[in-house]
Amino acid sequence: MFILEFTGELPTTEEICVPENRLGHVSGGATLEYTPSYYTARDDLGVVSKTIITEEEATLKSGILTFNGETLTRLTETGRVSEDGNVRTVKIGGIKNSDRKNYVICFYVHDAADGDCWVMIVGRNEAGFSLSFAKDKETIIDAEFKCQPMDDEGTLITYIEEVRQNAAG
What we know:
The structure is a single chain. With 169 residues, the protein is mostly beta strands. The chain has one domain (2-65, 99-161). 7% of the residues lie in helices and 44% in strands. It is built from two helices and nine strands. It has helices at residues 13-16, 69-75, and strands at 2-5, 26-42, 49-64, 80-84, 87-91, 103-109, 117-125, 141-148, 158-161. The strands form two sheets. Strands 1, 2, 3, 6, 7, 8 and 9 form a seven-stranded antiparallel beta sheet that branches. Strands 4-5 form a two-stranded antiparallel ribbon. Strand 4 and strand 5 form a beta hairpin. The chain is globular, with a radius of gyration of 20 Å. The two termini are 25 Å apart.
């Protein structure tokens, strides 16, 4: 999973999927959810009806296995990081510290047989996080990025796939 601050333009997959933009390696995969809401208007006799989409919501959820203090600052809008020598300190909290940043998040799936795919969204983690340190289980941060429109068309999700001639489907 890769992340960059959103500056108004969506980067290419080659620009975002580089080591310095890695949010972390993922455990448990990722889930992309798209949920539309509809309104249906009907006449009194039930002869005529019209249904329109009224709103959309999309979220990308994933478990982040490898992380550090810099990762935490991208998962909360009130995070601040400082470094002194080889010590990194992250402070989280204080509504007045909100940076209101949105990020481009790219989830990359490597598939040697059928072709790679990328899911890109713009948003921020709105689920908070919890850190559980146990002697017999890895620590995973469950991030939930709520999608924001990424262009003037209102696009919430960009799904890119590599098309291979021998791939089924």
